[in-house]
Amino acid sequence: MMKLKSKRFCRSKSKLSGDSGGANSVGGGGEIKWELRPGGMLVQKRENINVGKEGIITVRVSTVSQLHDIPIQPTSTFGELKMMLSIVTSLEPKEQRLLYKGKEREDGEYLHMVGVRDKDKVLLLEDPAIKETKLKLLGLARSRAAIGTPLRTITV
User: What residues are paired with 121 via a beta bridge?
Assistant: First the structure.
């Protein structure tokens, strides 16, 4: 097992300039930046290449007959995703049920906490109870309209 000395964590410029491209040379920078991971592991900090697209993922939302690609931040909630879907599908957020990994998700759950990643698929279903009440109201409206207007006039 190799012991690391504290000198390894911060390389000096004299060592970099005198090195001829060996295993210890670092391209372009003098000091290495380190980060402490949640598990306690000390690792070299990565440079983000995709700075502009870093905060946006694309969630693929599948309805019974359609597929929608929704760009959203991973720190958003399922309630915010429902708001965006209401624009696309014309279903109110209270009429929607979102399923991810076989489980219905609550409005307050965060996408990144549940594990939603870029290009993951979420299933959108219309709430059956609300769908039933809509159909009943639509049926009542049709029946009232049919009762109120005669099909033909009867002459005697």
Answer: 60
Q: What does the pLDDT profile of the chain (156 residues) look like in tens digits?
A: 444 444 445 544 444 444 444 444 445 556 888 888 888 888 888 765 444 446 899 999 999 889 999 999 999 999 999 999 999 988 899 999 999 999 999 999 999 999 999 999 999 998 888 888 888 888 876 666 555 555 677 777
Which two structure tokens, joined as six digits, stand for 60?
């693929």
Query: What's the CA gap between 86 and 81, in Å, rounded?
Result: 9
- pTM of the full predicted structure? 0.55
30 phi, psi to nearest 5 deg: -95, -45
Strand 121-126 with 57-62, pairing: parallel
User: For the chain, how far is it from start to end, CA to CA, in angstroms?
Assistant: 110
